[in-house]
Amino acid sequence: RKFGDYGGQYVPEALMPAIEELTDAYERYVLDNEDGFMDEFRERIRDFGGRPTPLQRADNLSERYGSDVYLKREDLLHGGAHKLNNALGQVLLAKYMGKERIIAETGAGQHGTATAMAAAHLDMPCEIYMGRRDVNRQRPNVFRMRINGAAVNPVDIGRGTLKEAISETMRDWATTVETTHYVIGSVVGPAPFPAMVRDFHRVIAEETRRQAEEQYGRLPDAVVACAGGGSNTMGIFSDFVGDEGVSLYAVEAGGSSLSVDEERGVAPNSASLSTGSEGVLHGARTKLLQDGDGQIMESHSVSSGLDYAGVGPELAYLVDEGRVNAVNVDDDAALEAFHRLSQDEGIIPALETAHALAFLEETDEDLGEFVVVNVSGRGDKDLEAAIEETEKR
Ligand SMILES: Cc1ncc(COP(=O)(O)O)c(/C=N/[C@H](C(=O)O)[C@@H](O)C(C)C)c1O
Which residue of 70, 94, 196, 265 lies most exposed, with the fewest beta carbons within 10 A? Predict the structure, then answer.
């Protein structure tokens, strides 16, 4: 339940029965593979999802940085992002638990889309909560969710971004726990969600380890991934935590600046790991952007998927332990990296992913000769935003 001081289950009493039921199901089906649950998960994520994803050498980036840069291509997973690993796992688990309805939150819309696809695939009705602001800036994903048969509920309270969408989804779940499972989109929320979401994404790290040995003859010197809630980071890091020779870099959104405006409660970034402080958000104790009175601050990022004031408790723990390096790059660097990968490698990355790629350009650290970057998603959803943002600069 806990990762050092972080984690726990800070939820209203009404949710405790659902949390206990989910904990029992997680232990039986995910940890103990009861009824062959994990076998069915692996078979479906292979045949429906398209796993394994390639570990591909980026020849032009390798030349630019004078090292062997390999891309873990989660953008090639069905739906265009790593999100399907967790969404498929949780919807399948809901089916094993006898649930009849699926709900989820989304910000960038990738998690919402993945949940809608998994629910359609497993014949479960699905409802997605999405901040109005995100509905407007990730429209291609709103269309995909609806075409996959999900209802998309725009959330108009507050700033209409991810934080409010999560709160609305939790509110729905509190009154529908009997029949409904809440598919949380990242390694956040009350236990067992952070560990369970990590375990569904662990397949990314397992493949990367095998592919590194086969294609390069040894483990990477460094693994780099962007961090919003932290699921694609924990997914690709989880298998390497015990390998001291593999440096791990979690790249957060530095937004437009790292200085926060305590007065207005606004942080023009989402660098919770680097600049946040300990607090409770969405059911877990973790690190988050809060003002002196403990009010959660508005976060910012050019990418919806990193625009989140919190971060997963296990990732916060690994950073405090010094096992993961928390770094960040700003909006401009991410936009440059978005265009660089598109022009130099023929891959349009998600704006979230672009932050991980920007770190290779921005850092003056020597990352070693064999560097793996997690390409968490593709940038189809971001084309309009990226062009607009680039023209503005
Ligand atoms: C392509 C892509 N890459 C990275 C992220 C960051 O989420 P994590 O991997 O959980 O840190 C995201 C996050 N997307 C979520 C979503 O689509 O709803 C996000 O907005 C929330 C679930 C946090 C993403 O779409």
Answer: 265
Sheet holding 247-255, edge to edge: 55-57, 68-73, 370-375, 222-226, 247-255, 324-330
pTM of the predicted model as reported, rounded to 2 decimal places: 0.97
Alpha helices in the chain (DSSP H): 16-25, 37-47, 59-65, 83-96, 110-121, 132-137, 139-147, 162-176, 193-216, 231-237, 272-275, 313-320, 331-345, 351-362, 383-392
Report whether residue 307 contacts ligand 1, using a CB cutoff of 6 Å.
Answer: no
Q: How far is the CA of 229 from the centre of ligand 1 (A)?
A: 7
How big is the CA angle at 302 (ends 114 and 225), to the nearest 5 degrees? Answer: 60
Measured in Å, residue 188 CA sits from the centre of ligand 1 at 12
pLDDT in tens, 194-240: 999 999 999 999 999 999 999 999 999 999 999 999 999 999 999 99
With a 6 A CB cut-off, is 119 part of the ligand 1 pocket? no
